[in-house]
């Protein structure tokens, strides 16, 4: 493992870090810049933890990251990365294949005097914690606070081993894909502060382990799906949208439209345009 977290290093990633095959690579909280290098896949094909968080990386997410079949934790948050989310993320085997037992990090290092597990600092559910012996049980992807555009690819729903997905504070548009409902082990899902529209897909009610959920400050409309989990979150998880139904106090009409929007619309039979959606 190579951990240079929380220093004052700058420039492009050092080429010397290509010289050995690593399981964990953590360059987070520095001042590195340039694009995310494609050699990460070529030189470190057995990577399980990759964190480039809180640097100045730009450019697109290289598609070669999709070939890291052992990758369990990917953190590219708080950089300047643009472009779209690669559809090939569905190839991340350790995040997608529940039957693949090799995705668990039970590696440990033994010396004459001590025995220790790999450990990593991960930001999950909005807070940073250290994981060591339980690191193999955590699968996460954090792409938050970048400039990612386009839609959330349907293929991301195939990552059924993911426990945490954070795509907040980007420029993502389009609908929330219905396939997210396939990620039934998900505990934390944050899609806030984007440009997502349409309704919250009913399939999200399948996520019975959710204990952190945020879709605030998008352009979402309609009724919040009914489930044990979705009605348990505070109003701030939904604010900044045009949603209605519990847990919000704003009720919906029979068409799933907030009643205040319905009342402000035109009552003439000849006009069915909802000017809120047009705006």
TrEMBL record:
**Which GO cellular component term is one of those annotated?**
membrane
> Topology in the membrane?
Single-pass type I membrane protein
InterPro entries recorded: Leu-rich_rpt (IPR001611), LRR_dom_sf (IPR032675), RLP23-like (IPR046956)
Keywords linked to the UniProt accession: Glycoprotein, Membrane, Receptor, Signal, Transmembrane, Transmembrane helix
| Zinc keyword on record | no
Its chief place of residence is: membrane
- Localization annotation: Membrane
Protein name (Swiss-Prot/TrEMBL):
Receptor-like protein EIX2
Task: Name the source organism.
Answer: Gossypium hirsutum
């Amino acid at each position: 493992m190579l951990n240079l977290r929380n220093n004052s290093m700058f420039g492009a990633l050092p080429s010397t870090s290509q010289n050995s095959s690593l399981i964990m690579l953590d360059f987070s909280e520095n001042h590195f810049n340039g694009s995310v290098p494609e050699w990460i896949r070529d030189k470190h094909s057995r990577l399980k933890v990759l964190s480039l968080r809180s640097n100045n990386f730009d450019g697109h997410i290289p598609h070669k990251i999709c070939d890291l079949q052992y990758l369990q934790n990917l953190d590219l948050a708080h950089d300047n990365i643009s472009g779209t989310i690669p559809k090939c993320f569905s190839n991340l085997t350790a995040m997608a294949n529940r039957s693949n037992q090799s995705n668990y990090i039970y590696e440990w290092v033994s010396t004459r005097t001590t025995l220790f597990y790999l450990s990593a600092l991960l930001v999950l559910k909005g807070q940073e914690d250290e994981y060591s012996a339980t690191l193999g049980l955590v699968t996460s992807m954090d792409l938050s606070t970048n400039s990612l555009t386009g839609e959330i690819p349907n293929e991301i729903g195939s990552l059924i081993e993911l426990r945490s997905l954070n795509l907040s504070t980007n420029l993502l548009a389009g609908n929330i894909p219905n396939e997210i409902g396939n990620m039934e082990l998900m505990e934390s899902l944050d899609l806030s502060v984007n440009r997502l529209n349409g309704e919250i897909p009913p399939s999200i009610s399948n996520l019975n382990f959710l204990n952190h959920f945020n879709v605030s400050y998008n352009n979402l409309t309609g009724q919040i799906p009914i489930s044990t989990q979705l009605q348990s979150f505070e109003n701030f998880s939904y604010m900044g949208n045009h949603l209605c139904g519990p847990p919000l106090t704003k009720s919906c009409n029979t068409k799933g439209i907030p009643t205040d929007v319905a009342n402000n619309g035109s009552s003439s039979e000849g006009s069915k345009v909802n000017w809120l959606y047009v705006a």
